[in-house]
What does this fold into?
Amino acid sequence: MMKIIKGDLIKLAEQGEFTMIVHGANCFHTMGGGIAGQLAIKYPQVLEADKKTTYADREKLGKCSIVSVDSGKNTFLVVNAYTQYQCSSGSDVFEYKHFEEFLERLVPTTLYGTQGTRRRGSIGFPMIGAGLAGGDWSRISKMIKKFSENVAPYADVTVVEYQP
It folds into this structure.
C-alpha cells in the first residue's frame, strides 16, 4: 500500500530506495522548477527524453517518457509523466483524468518491467501535481493510493513529501 514519508526523493532514489521515480511534466519541454528542474540539472538525459517527444502535443497527456539514470551508486528509472499541458500561472492546471490514464498505463510497466520480465520494484512519487501545477493533493493522493493497491504484490509505492 501507499506510504508517505518526508525526505528528498532524488537522494532516496540515488541511495537505492526506489527502482523508479515518477514526476509530473508539461507538454512544452519546460523543466525549470520543482523536482523536474532538479532532475533536468542533475540528470540531463531526463530532459533529453522529454525533448524526444513532440513539443506542445496534447496527445502526450496521460502518457510518459522513461529514462534510466545511474547515480554512481544505483540505477533507477525516471518517468516523465505528462500530467499538465502547460506551466501554471497560479491556477490548477493538473490533468486529473489524464493522470488516472497514466497510472493505468503504468501498472503493466510496474508488473512486468520495461523489458517484459516480472520483478519486484519500488516506486517513488513526489507530491505530484500539488506544487507548481496547483493541483488538489487530496484528490491526487487518492489516485496514487488506488494505483498502489493495484500493484501491491509487485511494487511498493511511496510518496515523498520534500524535506531537504
The first strand starts at residue 2 and ends at 7. The domain at 2-162 is CATH 3.40.220.10 (Leucine Aminopeptidase, subunit E; domain 1).
